[in-house]
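Figure 6 in text form: structure in, sequence out.
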């Protein structure tokens, strides 16, 4: 990368950031300005221990820190775990069940308060107090978590999380070894917040963090303003580097078309939503130098409520899987350059993935074509023909088109179907809450970290289902005790035999796919469309575009 030289001010920048002289001069040259992001809508609560969306996980990287972090680096290096608020990633003791973290000194929250051991202990307790979506799926392995899951508000994690303020350490004890525990601690749900952060969803009220930026204002109907944290000093370039823009302005309420036009006209620097299919050709030809295309470990799927008619009947769910033309869905998304048909849970190239497709004209490794005759037969056999089915989708161009397609498929196989688009700001939490009686919906899942359990156990494990909760990530309500036990066995085996565990996950993938709590549709590629003035675009494999590491001219 070409390094732009700037005379003067280098010594001050080095003192603040700990960079080499060349790095410091380069950063100083491009530092400043306001970066403008646009999206169709906000993504719900600002609370980092509750929000479970890519849209906000992406921006949390510059706002919050955990004990450990995924490296802020381009490409697959972004999967590397590095120490963050902890001085180092400790080696486990007690047969892999105990970790002792030494907390860094001199770090402040954006409101000026010092980070302390007490904040770390309280934050780990808060995961359970606010019923974080991954409290049961990720953090139930902590000693005392069972009591916290049963009685959230009085959670203490007694014996599980022990702070020693004099020594500056936090000890975490697990009930059993967990090969993925550091990955989980590196996610926003384990962000370290002030000890007095509310023991409930903070909603639209920003919670102070330790990152390079803080949320200055937030109105989910209008936008979010992020400014430099005046108390921030770099302690690790890998974990929390300083950012380039002085202000990051995120505006909500634009249509997909308006987002594209704003970037084209230089009124915005980046758009969150997938560009409408009919604009992809124009973007790819006239603005090709402003487009970045990256393969994702993700999928689009249609979760079906296994506890509500008609999809409490496995034959009804399998019928939908046979009826879907996955090639048509890929075309609605933007064509084969942007997506690939899939029938199973684990995406290609992911740990534990073995090609498998039982829902096609010629069942085997790959999807070939829909089998409408088989689908109609299964609907007849299920006794559910003629029942009313509503498809809940996000109110975006791509999601609505997929929803309308599913509506037509459901009608063709014998259901009285309709599609209901709702704002992306609430759709994800809406489809999780059993009180809303959602039968089928369209959703997406992007990996939390590269492990098979993050798709299979989190989305279809019994512990991820919570009645009447906006944080029930097992949207289908699927709970098969035999499969769930096998998932836990695979998690345990992963500590000593990762390859053997991945073979187990491949078997589990087939069993879940056969049970059809969802209809897998396709794996996507991600399109980032940026303005001419945006430079230093870097795509991190873990959290995607690193917003604060780009500059604006």
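Output sequence:
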């Amino acid at each position: 990368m070409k390094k732009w030289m700037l005379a003067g001010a280098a010594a001050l920048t080095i003192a603040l950031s700990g960079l080499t002289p060349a790095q410091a001069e380069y950063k100083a040259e491009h530092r400043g300005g306001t970066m403008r992001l646009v999206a169709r809508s906000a993504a719900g609560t600002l609370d980092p221990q509750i929000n479970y969306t890519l849209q906000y996980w992406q921006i949390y990287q510059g706002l919050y820190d955990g004990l450990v972090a995924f490296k802020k680096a381009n490409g697959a290096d972004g999967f590397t775990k590095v120490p963050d608020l902890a001085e180092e990633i400790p080696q486990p003791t007690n047969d892999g069940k105990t970790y002792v973290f030494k907390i860094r000194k001199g770090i402040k929250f954006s409101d000026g308060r010092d980070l302390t051991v007490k904040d770390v202990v309280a934050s780990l307790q808060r995961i359970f107090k606010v019923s974080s979506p991954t409290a049961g799926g990720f953090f139930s392995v902590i000693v005392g978590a069972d009591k916290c899951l049963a009685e959230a508000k009085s959670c203490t994690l007694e014996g599980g999380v022990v702070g020693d303020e004099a020594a500056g350490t936090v000890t975490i004890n697990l009930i059993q070894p967990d090969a993925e525990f550091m990955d989980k601690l590196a996610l926003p749900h384990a962000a370290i917040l002030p000890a007095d952060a509310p023991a409930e969803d903070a909603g639209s009220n920003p919670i102070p963090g330790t990152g390079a930026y803080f949320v200055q204002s937030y109105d989910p109907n209008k936008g979010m303003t992020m400014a430099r944290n005046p108390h921030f000093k770099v302690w690790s370039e890998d974990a929390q580097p300083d950012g380039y823009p002085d202000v990051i302005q995120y505006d909500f309420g634009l249509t997909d078309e308006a987002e594209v036009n704003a970037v084209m006209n230089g009124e915005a620097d980046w758009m969150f939503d997938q560009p409408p299919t009919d604009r992809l050709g124009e973007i790819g030809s006239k603005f090709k130098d402003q487009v970045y295309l990256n393969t994702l470990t993700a999928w689009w799927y249609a979760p079906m409520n296994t506890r509500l008619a008609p999809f409490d009947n496995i034959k009804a769910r399998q019928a939908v899987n046979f009826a879907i033309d996955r090639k048509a869905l890929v075309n609605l998304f933007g064509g084969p350059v942007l997506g690939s048909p899939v029938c199973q849970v684990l995406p290609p190239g992911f740990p534990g993935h073995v090609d498998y497709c039982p829902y096609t004209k010629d069942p085997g490794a790959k999807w070939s074509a829909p089998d409408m005759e088989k689908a109609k037969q299964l609907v007849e056999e299920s006794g559910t023909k003629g029942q009313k089915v509503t498809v809940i989708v996000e109110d975006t161009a791509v999601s609505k088109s997929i929803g309308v397609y599913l509506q037509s498929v459901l009608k063709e196989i014998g259901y009285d179907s309709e599609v209901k688009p709702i704002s992306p700001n609430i759709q994800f939490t809406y489809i999780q809450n059993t009180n809303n009686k959602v039968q089928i919906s369209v959703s997406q899942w992007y990996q939390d970290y590269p492990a098979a359990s993050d798709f299979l156990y989190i989305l279809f494990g019994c512990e991820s289902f919570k009645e009447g909760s906006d944080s029930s990530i097992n949207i289908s309500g699927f709970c098969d005790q035999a499969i769930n036990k096998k998932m836990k066995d695979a998690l345990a085996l992963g500590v000593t035999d990762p390859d053997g565990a991945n073979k187990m996950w491949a078997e589990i993938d087939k069993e879940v796919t056969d049970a059809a709590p969802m209809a897998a549709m396709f794996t996507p590629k991600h399109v980032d469309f940026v303005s001419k003035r945006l430079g230093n675009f870097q795509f991190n494999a873990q959290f995607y575009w690193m917003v604060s590491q780009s500059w604006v001219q």
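Caption detail: Residues 1-18 have pLDDT under 50 and may be disordered.
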